[in-house]
TrEMBL record:
<keyword id="KW-1133">Transmembrane helix</keyword>
<feature type="transmembrane region" description="Helical">
    <location>
        <begin position="48"/>
        <end position="66"/>
    </location>
</feature>
<dbReference type="InterPro" id="IPR038750">
    <property type="entry name" value="YczE/YyaS-like"/>
</dbReference>
<feature type="transmembrane region" description="Helical">
    <location>
        <begin position="109"/>
        <end position="132"/>
    </location>
</feature>
<protein>
    <recommendedName>
        <fullName>YitT family protein</fullName>
    </recommendedName>
</protein>
<feature type="transmembrane region" description="Helical">
    <location>
        <begin position="153"/>
        <end position="171"/>
    </location>
</feature>
<feature type="transmembrane region" description="Helical">
    <location>
        <begin position="7"/>
        <end position="28"/>
    </location>
</feature>
<feature type="transmembrane region" description="Helical">
    <location>
        <begin position="75"/>
        <end position="97"/>
    </location>
</feature>
<feature type="transmembrane region" description="Helical">
    <location>
        <begin position="177"/>
        <end position="197"/>
    </location>
</feature>
<dbReference type="Pfam" id="PF19700">
    <property type="entry name" value="DUF6198"/>
</dbReference>
<keyword id="KW-0472">Membrane</keyword>
<keyword id="KW-0812">Transmembrane</keyword>
Amino acid sequence: MWKKKIVLSFLFYLISALGISLTIQAGIGVSSFNAFNVTFATLTHLKVGTVTTAINFAFLGTCWLLDQQRKIQDYLIILVALIGFGFVINFFLYQLFGSLVFQNYLVKIVLFILGTIIAGIGTGQVVALGVLQFPIEKFCTLISERTRYSFQFYRYLVDIFCVSLALGLSISYHLPIFVREGTVISLFLLSWVISWSRKRGQQRILRIQIKKLESE
């Protein structure tokens, strides 16, 4: 069962990366965290997936230092998943979607919403399976356990920091602004889809466990 969960978690991790790629390709702005990643990638001429993986590595390293119950196996699995995550983003953005240009604004909106839904479903299923974690969420959980502030407080704080940094870099270095209408759409839609997907995943796992108990 654990091995199956690992495989499914990797699959949904990569599905989430596909969704993120679509939101970036839409060109109407991206989520708060990805706004910083795309801005920094534009500034440094690095690929977005590479920057995303590097930033996640930084959060994962911080989690390792904070986590008093850390298990090297769990962190190695997340490390491998993050490498695949960045690879998939780069593949879709620069190989599969690289030559595609969308001029129609309505098409861009639809593409962004589709990408957000796909990313949300993938993320929600990963959370429901409970084997892999996204480094930012793990970081916020660990910090909240050590302070009087909630997970949500720190998660929003990370979002605000990423948006501020993205805007600051764009203004300072005259880069395109990636905090746009897509960022607002993501703010409301992504959390809802993740929550919906997580609940569906947990219900599915519960049904499987009940059937297993009944068959014994």
